[in-house]
Amino acid sequence: MVTLSHEQADLEDAFHKKLNVEELATSMSAAYGRPVPIVSNARGINMGITGDPLGTEEPADYERWQASVIREIASNFLRGQKYDEARVKLQDAIKQMGGLRCPGEVVVPLYLPSSDNEPGPNASAVRYNDHDYWRRTLLMGCCNDIAECYLKSGNDIEALTWLEESDHLYVGCTTPSKTALFGWMSSNPASEEFYLERLRTLATMGEMFLRLGNTSSGLLRRWQRHLLVMAVPPGMDGRSLQRMVDQNEMRKLTQLKHPDAKLSPKLEVKNKDLQIMGSWQKVEVPKSGNIQPRMGFCSFVWKSKLYIFGGEKSLDGPHFRDLRCIDLNNPSAGWWALDGYPGNEAQTGKATGWKMRVHAGQQRAYLFNGRLQLEYFDLVEEKWGSVKTTWTSEGDLPFWPYQQLVDFSMDIVDDKIYVFGGSHTKCELGCNLFTVLDLKTLKWRRLSGYTGSRQHPLRPEWSCPGPRRHPASWVDSSKTKLYLMFGEADRMSARINNEAYGAQSGYGYGDIWYWDIAEERWVRDKHHGNPPCPRSEMSYTYNPKLNKTIIFGGYSPTIPATAEETNQYFSYSYYADTYTFKPNADPNQQGIWKHVLVRGFPTYRAQAHLVSDPDTGKVFLFGGYTNSQFVLDKKHVIARSFGDLWWLKMDVSDAEGNPGAGFFEGVDLEEEARTAKAGPWQRCFNCGSAGTWKKCGGTCGGKAFFCDPQCLKEGWKEHKDRHRCMNRKK
C-alpha cells in the first residue's frame, strides 16, 4: 500500500467535501490499467497499488499520483463552475510534480526549453523533454482544464496561452528513451487518456481560431485531429476516437481559402490583443515602366527604394539576372534597370533562391549564393564588387560545405553574416547547417547543424532547428536574438533524389527558435497568441519602426484544400493571410502574434517578398507565384507568377506606442468590403459576393464590379453617387 501525504493545508477538507472517491478510483484504474482501491483518512490518501504500476523498471511516480488527486478536486470545482478555485487547485497539481522553470510559481512556459543543455540558474528545473509520457498526459490535462477555466470566464488570450502549453507538451513527446526525433516522426503511447487530452487541446484551439476568423490555424487543428485518430498505436481501439472527429465538418473547412473571400468582409476585431485591422492596397505602376513577373528573386530596400534581383518567371524560364529598382515614394515613375550582375551562370547556377541583405554601415547589399566568393552591390556607386572569403576547417567539415545552395535564410548583424539551412546538390531535403561569416576577417565557421551529405549526415537534436528550406528569419531590435521559424523539409525532392528521409509529401515546420547571439546557442521558443499555421515559402519582414515582424501568405505541403467550384481535392494549400509578431519588452516573456483582418488582399501565393522601408515604416509586397489549378487560371497551365506591388496599411502603433504608425488613417473599410479585390476575385458592389465579375463600363474607370444585370440595376444609383460614375457616350 502506498501512502501519499497532503501538501496543502486545505487539501484534506476539500477532499472530504468535494472529491468523489469512487470517481478517483475509476480514474486511477483507467490510468494504470489495473484496479486501484483508494481510501482517505487523516494521514492522507491510500492507494492500493503494489509493485510497479506502469509495468516498467522505473520506480512508481508518487508525485504524479498526488497531482492526480489534486486535479480531481479541481475537476469538482470546474463542474461546479467555480473557475477561480479550480484554477488554483490545478496550479497546485502542477506544482506537485516540481521541476518548474520558476520555483514555486506556475507561469508559462512551465519548464526549460528542450533545447537547453544546461540547467541554468534553477538547478531543479527540468526541460519539456525530461517528462515521461504519463507526466505529460497529466500536465496536458491540467493545462486543458486551466484553459477551460479562462475560456468560461471570457479570457481568450489566457485560454490560448494554456492550450499552447498543452500543445508544446505534446510536441515534445518522443521515444520512451527521450531521444530526439525529426519533426516528421512521432512516437505516442498506447494510452487512450493521452489521446483524449491531445484531441481536447486541438478541438478547443480549432474552435477558438475559427471563431476569431483565423481559418488556416483553425483548419490545421481539425486536420491534426483527423491524422491523430487515423494512426493510433497497435493495441488501441481507434474506432471510439475516430467517432470524436467530425469528418463532414472537416471536409467543409477544406473548402475555405485563407482568408476566405466570403468571410473577410464581415470580420471585425473581437479581441484587440489577438487581432488588428489592416488594408491591402495595390500600387499602380505604369505598364511602360513595369517589371516582368517573377518568383525566387532577391529583394531589399535602401533609401526608400525597392531593389529586385534575379528570379524566374516559372521553373522552365525565363530566368532573370537583372537588377531593377523602384522609388517607393514615387512608384508612378516605374521600374528602372541598374548595372547588370557580372557573375557567369555556368559558375553560379541560376540566380534563383539566393539572398541579398543590406549592411547599412558599409552601404552595401551583400549577395550570397553558396560560394566562397561573396558579391555585393555598392549602394552609393551603384556597381557590383566582390570579396574572397575562406572556410575555417573543423573535424568532419574540412572543406567548404556548400554546392549551389538555395532557399536558405540570411541575416546581417553588425559585421557578421548568418546563413541557415537551404538545399544544395547533396541534400535536396534541406539542411540545418548554420554558419557565420565575419566581415572583418572574411572567415566562415560552423555554428551548428549538418550539411545532409553522406559525409556529414543529418541528425535529430534537441539543441538546434531541424533541416529545412525556405525558413523565415529576422533579427530583433536589440540585435541580441536572431529568430528562425517555419520552412519545409522537402521530402518529395529527397525521394526523387534517392536521399534519406524521402517521402511522397513534404513536412511543413510549425516551430519558432531564436539564436542567442552573445551565448551562441539556439533556444526553442513558443508561438503565443493568434499565430499563422505552419507553412513554407512565406513572405516576411521585420519592421524596425513598428518593432513588429509581418508574415504574409506562403504554402503548406500537407494541409489539404478543396476547390468548391470544381470539387477538386488538393493535398496542399496556398495562403494570402497576414499576421504580425511583436516581441515582449521583457526578454523573459513571450511575444504576441496577431491576425491582421483585411477586406481585400493579394492573390494566394508563395515566394512573394515583404519589405519594410526603414525610413518611413511602410510595408510593401512584391511578386511570388501560385498554382494555376489551386487558383483557377486558364492562361497558365501549371503556375502563375506575379509582378504586382502592394502596400499594407495596419491599425498599429510604432515601437514607442505612438498611434497611426501603420498609415491606416483614411482607410474606408465599408468601401473596401464592396470594391476591394479579394485574391483572384472581385466583389459585387451590390451584393458583396466574390467572383470573376464584370467591371463597370462607365466613367469611374472600373471602381465597381457587378455579378449580374440585376445587381447592376439595384446598385447603379448608389455606385453613381459614391463614385461619380456616368454612362459613357456611345
Described by strand count, sense and barrel closure, the largest sheet is: 8 strands, mixed
Determine the strand fraction and express it as a percent band: 15-25%
Helical segment tally? 14
| pLDDT < 50 stretches | 1-21, 38-59
C-alpha end-to-end distance: 98 Å
Instruction: Quickly give the structural class.
Output: alpha+beta
The CATH superfamily of the largest domain is known as Kelch-type beta propeller
InterPro entries: Gal_Oxase/kelch_b-propeller (IPR011043), Kelch-typ_b-propeller (IPR015915)
Keywords: Kelch repeat, Repeat
Pfam families: Kelch_KLHDC2_KLHL20_DRC7
List keywords for this structure.
Neuraminidase, 730 residues, Serine Threonine Protein Phosphatase 5, Tetratricopeptide repeat, globular, five-stranded mixed sheet, 3 domains, kelch repeat, repeat, Kelch-typ_b-propeller, alpha+beta, Gal_Oxase/kelch_b-propeller
What order do the helices and strands come in, and which of them pair?
Layout: E1 2-4, H1 11-18, H2 21-32, E2 38-41, E3 44-47, H3 62-79, H4 83-96, H5 133-152, H6 156-171, H7 192-211, H8 215-229, H9 238-242, H10 247-253, E4 275-283, E5 298-302, E6 305-309, E7 323-327, E8 336-337, H11 345-348, E9 355-359, E10 364-368, E11 373-378, E12 383-388, E13 390-391, E14 409-413, E15 416-420, E16 434-438, E17 443-448, E18 472-475, E19 481-485, E20 488-489, H12 491-496, E21 507-508, E22 512-516, E23 521-524, E24 539-543, E25 548-556, E26 561-563, E27 568-570, E28 573-582, E29 592-597, E30 609-612, E31 619-622, E32 625-627, E33 639-641, E34 645-650, H13 669-675, E35 682-683, E36 690-691, E37 694-695, E38 705-706, H14 709-723
Keywords: Kelch repeat, Repeat
Pfam families: Kelch_KLHDC2_KLHL20_DRC7
InterPro entries: Gal_Oxase/kelch_b-propeller, Kelch-typ_b-propeller
